[in-house]
Design a protein that fits this description.
Blueprint (H helix, E strand, L loop, with lengths): L2 H11 L17 H7 L20 E17 L5 E13 L5 E10 L7 E8 L8 E8 L12 E6 L11 E12 L9 E15 L10
Antiparallel strand pairs: 1-2, 1-8, 2-3, 3-4, 4-5, 5-6, 6-7, 7-8
């Protein structure tokens, strides 16, 4: 066999000849057929079956005690006779350390109760936004020897945030006055003050479900 014959034989051995295989026949369903079969039926979310407008709250007793300084004087809002502001620090059953800002107004009409608002701010390493706000109203006839209102009923307000966001609470507020003879200019009274909140609060527990028990 000559060289030309060997070259032709090698080409015959290395020839690429793929085989063609037939594809199976499949019927593509139309959109109408898919809807009829239920394949394109909309998926209903689970939440749609549940009313989530009211998130369940977990209630627990609440106590908070603060002390600080107060000043009282003529009210700067129409319809009120006197006003009182206080700020201080303390603790509670819901947080270890906190600050409070509190104010109430006594109406000119003695038949109307004093009304006020308090904001309790949690003190910790980071600024978490945890704060508890409460509106309060004086109990009729509850005054100390100097005629100052000293017992109120309170309820949680929308100033609450962080752990207390979306919660509810209510209870009583006791105020104890320790007036001083040294009164700042422009004030009618001043001194030290103690406030005690007692009641019950309900929280959602979604901020820290493992610790907020």
């Amino acid at each position: 066999m000559n060289q030309r014959t060997r070259f032709a034989a090698n080409r015959a051995k290395t020839r690429f000849a793929p085989n063609m295989e037939g594809l199976e026949t499949r019927v593509v369903l139309s959109t109408t057929a898919l809807l009829a079969s239920g394949a394109l039926a909309p998926v209903r979310p689970v939440a749609a079956e549940v009313d989530v407008s009211i998130f369940p709250l977990r209630y627990r007793p609440f106590t908070a005690m603060f002390k600080g300084h107060y000043t009282a004087g003529p009210a700067r809002s129409p319809g009120f006779a006197t006003q009182l502001y206080m700020h201080g620090g303390g603790t509670s059953s819901a947080f270890l350390h906190g600050d409070v800002q509190l104010a109430y107004y006594v109406p000119e009409d003695p038949a109307k109760p004093a009304v006020g608002q308090a904001n309790m701010m949690v003190k910790n390493i980071g600024d978490t936004g945890n704060q508890f706000g409460a509106n309060f109203t004086a109990v009729p006839g509850a005054v100390d020897r100097a005629g100052r209102p000293n017992l109120f009923t309170w309820s949680q307000n929308d100033l609450s945030g962080g752990t207390f966001n979306g919660g509810q609470g209510s209870g009583t507020l006791k105020i104890i006055y320790f007036p001083t003879q040294k009164v700042p200019r422009g004030a009618a009274a001043a001194g030290r003050i103690g406030v005690i909140f007692r009641g019950e609060i309900g929280v959602t527990n979604i901020d820290d479900i493992t610790r907020n028990s």
